[in-house]
Amino acid sequence: MPNPSEILHAETRRYLRGYRSASLCAGITWQGAHHEVALRGKGTPPPTDAVFSLGAITEVFTAALLAVLVEGQRLRLDTPLSELIPRALLVDDVAGRITVEQLATHTSGLPHLPPNLHAAPQDPEDPFGHYSAGLFGEFLRSYHPERPPPRPHAESFLGVGVLGHALSRRAGLNYGHALRDLLFKPLGMVDTMARVTDEQAPRLRPGHTARGKPVPPWTFPALPGAGALHSTVGDQLRFLDANLGRGEPALVRALRLTHAPRVEAGSVRMGLGWTLSQVRGHDVVWRSSVMGGFVGFLGFAPDADAGVVLLSDHGWSLFAGLRGRVPLEAPGLALLSRLLPRP
Prior knowledge:
CATH superfamily: DD-peptidase/beta-lactamase superfamily
CATH architecture: 3-Layer(aba) Sandwich
CATH class: Alpha Beta
Helix content: 25-40%
Distance between the termini: 14 Å
Strand order of the largest sheet: 2-1-12-11-10-9-8-7
Number of helices: 11
Number of domains: 1
Order of helices and strands: HEEEHHHHHHEEEHHEEEEEEHH
Largest sheet: 8 strands, antiparallel
């Protein structure tokens, strides 16, 4: 394998040239060994234990919580919402037939965003902060799908939020505490949580626009399962190790459940929370995010016994958005490609 630090620098150089004021923390796990670097195109790099918002990468952990509950026989992948959400909230029989697997694979038919997202005054700099448990309950009571699930794959931020809510009910804990007790503590992930602690606060990176303008934190009071988590590169490497088979056997079995391909999504396939691709004939499992002034990439290649995490405190540019490019996807996949076995 090439020098990990060298390839991390090489594959992120183009990103840092395009986002010169961005603080980027990057890491590789390879055969159980961790390599971390902190980088910046212009200025002082952040500490390697800097805390970032994970944004949409949170979905991977919501799916992991689902798998842990399935492994513990506390629910099934085909468990319908009618068994998890009280009838007083979910009144429509067709909506009640949506399963947790359909929510995790975006085949539930739920819209991308809550239809009543604008029913209360909204802060454009924190677009979900006003979306309360009351508004979420109103949506559930009023949701009447035109057709029963499953539906063709279509990304649904709302669907992952509903999944996080349903899993919290089954676990008997709020979303953050369920993940803490059932996943983070067993994996030694002390820096991953939905609410930043007083100890973490000085290490928390503020989000920025692509041009470096600070962005206030996004909050998710009613939909934490869709984007509320914060973490460090070190904790994400521990999570990747567990996905690569290192850890308590029951947790490893649960996480492997999330890797299996379940639905087609254009040129890729979807597992539970993960995107599945083929790179030079090898399976690569990954997820990227652009949300709230942060971008990120998390992925691993089982055949290489390797994983990569990239976390940055800058959002994407309008140009990248118009071209459909998530800034850290290309370097993340390129790093995994370089770690794969050569023919």
